[in-house]
Amino acid sequence: xxxFEPWILFAIACNFAGxxxxxxxxxxxxxxPNRASWLIWSASTGLEAATYWAVNPGAVQTVVxxxxxxxxxxxTIGIWRRSTWAMPSVTEALCVVTCLAALALWLIFxxxxxxxxxxxxxxxxxxxxxxxxxxxxRDRERxxxxxxxxxxxxxxxxVAARHGGEGAGxxxxxxxxxxxxxxxxxxVGVATINPLRSLARRGGVYALGGYRQTAAxxxxxxTHLGKSVFVARAFAEGEPMLEFTGRRLxxxxxxxxxxxxxxxxxxxxxxxxxxxxxxxxxxVNHSCDPNAGLRFTDHGVFxxxxxxxxxxxxxxxxxxxxxxxxxxxxxxxxxxxxxxxxIGNFExxxxxxxxxYRARNLVAPYLRRRDAVEVGRRIRx
Length: 381
Hints:
Blueprint: H1 6-27, H2 35-55, H3 62-81, H4 90-109, H5 112-136, H6 145-162, H7 168-188, H8 205-209, E1 218-223, E2 226-231, E3 240-244, E4 248-250, E5 266-269, E6 272-274, E7 285-286, E8 292-297, E9 300-305, E10 316-317, E11 330-331, E12 342-343, H9 351-359, H10 365-380
Parallel strand pairs: 7-10
Antiparallel strand pairs: 1-2, 3-9, 4-6, 5-6, 8-9, 11-12
């Protein structure tokens, strides 16, 4: 049995669709891929394809690995263009060294089989950073790509079986790759096979995929302040837009010096801050004349539109609406007509503007409670 039978075409289509939807999600900031894993995969997939071909000459399923190798490099370039350089981690270094050792085995000692087995052994190790990332927050990898890759791996296994494949040389990599992809798919939710997730549409799509609607309603772009969040559709006044998340930290745990991208902390009580979430809420900029504000509820902290917002507008909120008793301040670059020049505690806002935020419930609860105490004192006095 030779040629491109339907199963191999199906496997190629699944893998190609997987990388296409993953890239679409990456560009729309719907996924937060782990740089370490993708760096390793981009370095190893080409070697996997080459050694697999050497061990199984003429195996048509090698085409799937070649497509994956090219696509991995494309995704890795996309990730690195959006990030800054950092020294390789222990896992990264270990996997890259393993791949180099496999290449040496193959080229110097003509040991294609053991070179291939060495690369196979590196595959689960390369997934360690991604597994850890998903355990911490499965929304980082909630893409239909994982389901598509798993189905593609299964189709490739079927091709190998139909072509009479046997032994570890032909099945080891296929099985390991299938199990690794399937494990991530199971962790992020099997319903994520829905490819419309990466097209960022609203409606019943999200009931199937189990995604938060908010992530698909925004895009990330650049302004004079750096990375900024823009709405992908219109929002009406009073409409919730985005949930702010992050681990709660005592004031003493917050870094005393924060600059640029490291300054992602929101005061939530007199003694606690909400730390960076690694999501879109970290990128929403300040404005002295914002179109949104933070509302604290029993179900979380939400960014709410304080006026009608047209599609394509940048989303902003007033950082001072949660601050009091803090030494933090920031030179403002919002360029609005009402810019205060220096951003600090809530008390630094004009009293009329303070009342504007209070009337719309866009002030941190501990500030509202303090206001109530002060009013009570005036009445009793």
